[in-house]
Design a protein that fits this description.
With 388 residues, the protein is mainly beta. Helix content is 6%, strand content 57%. The chain is built from three helices and 24 strands. Keywords: Signal. InterPro entries: Porin_dom_sf, Porin_O/P. This is Phosphate-selective porin OprO and OprP.
Length: 388
């Protein structure tokens, strides 16, 4: 859905003026389950200083020559239930992307939130730390290139988790994505994490994750957007025919995070291997990011289930202000496969106002190389967000 500039502006002003609402709006108790409702609406605007590619195109084939994009990014609607007993469930849908989000049932063993079985669609443990964190609290408008290009998103499967407040081990078996014509290919995924330091305003997190999956159709395509989520064109790309004769794909990830009062330093590395048969050589690609955040209004982060949690502003009328800087890189060239390389630097400012509104402004400098070709766009990005 492409919005006009005036329509988008009016929608965002309406969201900004809306009165503060409470998270997880209670609905009713149905069959012993306390049912609540959540929502997340995001609208993005990108202004490109393009190099060789029309990144403002409506699609990869509909080139319009514009140097900007503006569109609704997410429109997530989520029902949640607690009970009966130790059961929790969730059913989420993104009306913008026309796909199911988390849709699963969890059983807390012995009532312990850190010891459970889960069945349905959920984020795989082999996803990145930032992918497992709450979408509404993203540090930057675009997630890292490894998250968007290498990590495995939500799939339907069965998961087991054990741990406590300072450590956890999770393993899952999964199949396809719930929404039709989306991701396919069964496999397994696991993650382990440990927080040797975990107290108020002081956190040290270390983690490792691994995913192995069938490519489903013996082909896999790896590609990366230039740090702008809605851009249809990718310069860094292993090709429209993908990596042919691909049997299985595995991903190994390392993650670390350090919180000291209002400062957070976070980094992740991922390497992906595609096992190929016949006369085709195996393929290896990798990437990483390092980011730093400063809450200039003094708030600090929490920690739950191996991911950081962003607090509400200490002063709701002034809001929570953040400054952020990230370096991101990905390399999808290996041997005869020239997918390209991308390096980017993102500088950003975030403003959480009251308990339901967020504004983000990023400036991204991107450098891409693919064989003898180069493309180096700079992008000004803005996001308006309303959530409850």
């Amino acid at each position: 859905m492409k919005l006009t500039r005036s329509t988008l502006t009016l929608a965002l002003l309406a969201a900004a003026a809306a009165p503060a609402a409470q998270a997880e709006i209670p609905i009713d108790v149905i069959a012993g389950s306390e049912v609540s409702f959540e929502g997340l609406v995001q609208a993005d605007f990108y202004k490109f200083d393009s190099d060789t590619i029309d990144y403002g195109a409506d699609s990869a084939t509909d080139l319009d020559g514009d140097d900007y994009l503006q569109e609704l990014r997410r429109a997530e609607l989520v029902l949640k239930g607690k009970g009966p007993g130790n059961i929790e469930w969730v059913l989420g849908y993104d009306a913008k992307d026309d796909k199911f989000l988390d849709a699963n049932i969890k059983y807390k063993i012995g009532g312990n939130a850190n010891h459970f079985l889960q069945i349905g669609q959920f984020k795989q443990p082999g996803a990145t730390l930032e992918e497992l964190s709450s979408t509404k609290n993203n540090d930057f408008i675009s997630k890292s290139s490894i998250t968007n290009s290498i990590g495995t998103p939500r799939r339907v499967g069965l998961q087991y988790n054990i741990g406590d407040a300072n450590w956890g081990v999770t393993a899952s078996f999964f199949g396809r994505e719930l929404t039709r014509n989306r991701e396919h290919g069964g496999g397994y995924s696991a993650r382990g994490y440990w927080a040797p330091i975990n107290s108020a305003g002081s956190i040290l997190h270390l983690g490792i994750n691994y995913t192995d999956k069938d490519t489903d159709g013996d082909v896999i395509r790896l590609r990366a957007r230039p740090m702008a989520d809605m851009v249809p064109t990718r310069f860094v790309d292993t090709g429209s025919s993908g990596l042919r004769a691909a049997d299985r794909n595995n991903v190994l990830g390392l993650e670390a995070m350090w919180v000291n009062g209002p400062f957070k330093l976070q980094g992740e590395y991922m390497t992906t291997d595609v096992k190929r048969y016949g006369n085709f050589e195996d393929f290896t690609g990798d990437g990483y990011y390092v980011s730093g955040l400063w809450n200039i209004t003094g708030e600090t982060w929490g920690y739950k289930a191996g991911v950081p949690t962003t607090p509400l502003p200490d002063d709701p009328t002034k809001g929570l202000w953040q400054l952020g800087l990230r370096y991101d890189t990905i390399d999808l060239t290996d041997g005869a496969v020239v997918g390209g390389e991308m390096d980017s630097i993102t500088a950003g400012v975030n403003w959480y106002w009251r308990s339901n509104f967020k504004f983000m402004l990023n400036y991204v400098a991107v450098k891409q190389e693919k064989g003898a070709l180069n493309d180096d766009p700079n992008i000004l990005e803005a996001r308006m967000q309303f959530y409850w």
